[in-house]
Amino acid sequence: MTRIAVQLQPQHADYTEIRRAVAACEELGVDIVYNWDHFFPLSREPEGKHFEAWTMLASWAEITERVEIGSLVTCNSYRNPQLLADMARTVDHISDGRLILGIGSGWFEKDYDEYGYEFGTAPGRLRNLDRDLPIIKSRLSRLNPAPLRPIPILVGGGGEKVTLRVTAQHAHIWHTFASPARMNVWAHKNNVLNDWCAKVGRDPSEIERSVGVNAQRIDFADQLAAAGAGQITLGFSGPDYDLGIVRDWIAWRDSR
Fold first, then answer.
1. What is the pLDDT confidence band of residue 1, given thresholds at 50, 70 and 90?
2. Of 5, 72, 224, 242, which is least packed with CB atoms within 10 Å of its CB?
3. What residues make up the domain containing 196?
4. Predicted local confidence at residue 5, as pLDDT
5. CATH number of the domain within which 178 lies
6. What is the mean pLDDT of the chain?
7. pTM, rounded to two decimals
């Protein structure tokens, strides 16, 4: 079954509106609810309302009962990898084992500049992600108490030389974006990931393929599923979080 995920972008909204949207997603039957890991809005008013990702996930863990939760994606640059592992384990326990650890190398320069992180270069940030994922996994294996389940790691990005290799080595879910006009690009990167799996000795079927799409384009849902999308993610921005179209996606999922 293809799972339906919703990314609630925590921008331009009061937290009461975000909390209400999370509850609505669970009531609708969504499989996974994500936020994102930024400090400022990515669209509209650049200094608009915004909230931090991981403290929010701890709240979501308490106010939901069924949906999986995670950040799409955590920026590897913002937290010590050992600390991030402990944060993930803690939210995993609060949620009774429903956390997905989404992670990527980072890209939004304003976050770095405003909060005092070194932006560096894209290759350098990717090298850091490559370095830190084994550290995260090692710390997760040594924490007491241990996570309630092997926490699924989601890696976001489509870089063919490093990101997809790192995905093949460490991830349980790979996330990127697709549109009807660019399905050939998504298919190509899927094949590159499969090739990396072969090189590192990983069964490619162990990695769920997650695709971010325009929520209105339910007309190509069947095409996505046929191409191997195990998870389809729909993004919604505050303050309104108009989730009406999600009902159609849930009905599509349940009809298959």
1. confident
2. 242
3. 3-255
4. 98
5. 3.20.20.30
6. 97
7. 0.97
